[in-house]
Design a protein that fits this description.
Number of strands: 12
Strand content: 15-25%
Strand order of the largest sheet: 7-6-8-9-10-11-12
Distance between the termini: 21 Å
Order of helices and strands: HEHEHEHEHEHHHHHHEEHHEEEHEEH
Structural class: alpha/beta
């Protein structure tokens, strides 16, 4: 079990603090392992720790908040010292928040929960536990973590990056040989779980084929700007009858599983978010490839997806920019820091250079601006815009 220090260090900040530690993220991103790592860090008697995994039949009897409350109270009865409650995939427990709020209010229990559905912190639940929780989003492996899981060093980064863009960052793929059939079969089974359990069953979806057509369109257009209406129009052109509302609902279901991320557009000059047209990125690039196949011709969108997820891992709020008729791939903000990023495969022609740099040069503020590409021999910065190799960017501390 490899130490994912970026998350462990963040969670440790809140150890023995009166806040609920809510660990969220796509299925199989490593949330359960993080709980085990935290448990291993605790220097307490085993009786002071209760770990409930709702994916295990051992805890199938805990179906609602009353079951959770009674089981936990009984387990910790007459236990001395601090108590630690860990609940994995807590969204499987009906109205779980009632029990958790009760523990926070009346007992000396340090609480850690995980969930694979964004509705875990819906407005109603967030209101109940408002001010009493901290969310720690967990993503699949960064490229730096990928190298660690592969027992590779930075010297191997160029050859290993080809594996990373083809297979993605789900931690469990490192139990197998990195072969296309094996890895994509595993990820496809994970996709089926997300679709059937987290989308179809939870939302009572009847037309599963339509659902998958919508998701294939989204994955096939990674890095492109489009709207739900464009998906609706595309499906109608294929003689598939569907309403705009249905498309919007199905997209929201998939977003709630963290399998895709919706990124808004921002008008830099107008200083406002735009309601129409956005981009969507896969929660892991391997998920996209397992569903629609890996195609080197899609490299630009794939690299954009990888950079987007890396920015999210670094706790940036990310959106895409519009300035005049030009597009900025990413505007990333964190605290008082802001950066602008253009991502491309190679700066192989003067036309490409002008296209990628000109948009950034139109921005009049003094925040850092980057063009990130796979070029290994980078010339000096161009009119104040910084050139950076993509792999070097991913491996920055």
């Amino acid at each position: 079990m490899y130490n994912r220090s970026i998350y462990i260090n963040e969670i440790k900040k809140y150890l023995n603090k009166p806040v609920i530690k809510v660990i969220t993220g796509i299925r199989r991103s490593g949330k359960s392992c993080l709980l085990q790592m935290i448990i291993n860090c605790l220097d307490v008697d085993q009786k002071q720790i209760l770990y409930i995994n709702k994916e295990s039949l051992e805890f199938d009897h805990i179906k609602n908040y009353k079951d959770l409350y009674q089981f936990t109270k009984q387990y910790f009865d007459k236990t001395d010292g601090n108590c630690y409650l860990f609940v994995d995939e807590i969204q499987e427990i009906i109205q779980w928040e009632k029990a958790i709020v009760s523990f926070v209010s009346s007992a000396a229990i340090d609480i850690f929960i995980t969930g694979s559905n964004a509705h875990l912190l819906s407005s109603e639940i967030a209101t109940l536990i408002s001010g009493r929780y901290i969310e720690i989003p967990v993503y699949t492996l960064s490229f730096q973590e990928f190298l660690m899981f592969r027992n590779r060093k930075n010297e191997d980064r160029f050859s290993e990056f080809n594996n990373y863009i083809q297979y993605g960052g789900f931690p469990a793929i490192h139990h197998f040989d990195l072969k296309e059939n094996t890895i994509y079969q595993y990820i496809s089974s994970l996709y089926d779980t997300i679709i059937l359990k987290d989308v179809v069953k939870r939302n009572n979806v009847r037309n599963v084929r339509l659902l998958e057509n919508i998701y294939k369109y989204i994955f096939d257009n990674t890095g492109n700007i489009f709207s739900a209406k464009r998906i609706s129009d595309f499906l109608k052109s294929k003689k598939i009858s569907v309403s705009l509302e249905t498309v919007q609902n199905y997209i929201s279901y998939f977003i709630s599983t963290y399998a895709i991320h919706k990124v808004q557009r921002y008008d830099i000059k107008g200083k406002r978010f735009l309601e129409l047209y956005e981009k969507y990125y896969a929660g892991d690039i391997g998920l996209r490839h397992a569903l629609i196949g890996y195609n080197k011709e899609d490299i630009s969108g794939i690299l954009e997806n990888i950079v987007y997820l890396e920015l999210k891992r670094r706790n940036y709020y990310v959106y895409i920019g519009k300035i005049g008729n030009n597009e900025i791939d990413f505007i990333a903000e964190r605290e008082n820091k802001k950066i602008y990023i253009q991502v491309c495969y190679l700066l192989e022609s003067q036309k490409t250079i002008e296209k990628e740099f000109s948009s950034l040069m139109m921005i009049e503020d003094n925040y850092p601006k980057y063009v990130i590409s796979m070029d290994t021999f980078l010339s000096d910065d161009y009119n104040g815009v910084i050139r950076k190799n993509l792999i070097d960017f991913l491996l920055e501390e």
